[in-house]
Request: fold
Amino acid sequence: MKLPADYHTHNYLCRHAEGRLVEYAAAAVQRCTAEIGFSDHAPMPTDGYDEWRMLLSELPEYVEMADEAKKKFPDYPIRVALEVDFLPGQEAWIRELSERYPWDYLIGSVHYLEDGWDIDNPAKKHLWAQSNINSIWKRYFERLTLAAESGLFNIIGHTDLPKKFNYRPTCDCTSLYRNFLKAAAKTETAIEINTAGWDKECKEAYPSFDILAMAHTEGVPLTFGSDSHSPHSVGNYFDKAVSLARQAGYTHSIRLSGRKPTSHPLPF
Reply:
């Protein structure tokens, strides 16, 4: 079966992945994904915010690597994008980044609720035990809703990331999810089925099935992403992801070029 486009991948520039973009493209062709999208962690205005994103000075190298992959596979759809951290107050920087290159899409993600704690970082997992889990989930979805409302992004990444280490809320978060999804629908911002979650402690894709079904009800567009950190993970679990999407009611996903979406039927 031809798999959906894989729009969430990383490479060696982010310092916690491996491989050049041409290797990711080759893997995507071999795995029969409809398209490959490069979406490495965008730089911050100044370097040193953390250790898992490309430097600002490396942005031209990233684009050159993408051009190399396009030349190697001229008949295969290759999209060039960024995964951008949404931090309130950084909207002007995000807009500046969006104008530096004719990106095909931007993924907006929330990793930080406060400076110094990237909540999905295994090296800082101990901070979860010192925190109020329900409060983290609430603050996370409030910030994710702001990201969706901003209209700065085409896709919101790994929607329920706080579950990565299997720290789950004990309160009812339905209203938080619905507020976020309504904001995404209003700005026509997609969510992704991020298959990396199946290999994390939570043992399920991002988002959960309940959120995915709610997203379909609210009319939120859908994409797929492996969140690959090595070429061999491109398209990982996409057969399961397509089945999950269909169970949630989706019949189509979108693809993006020049930040404009087109709808495509899910494969069978």
Summary: Helices lie at 21-31, 59-72, 91-98, 133-150, 174-186, 209-218, 238-247.
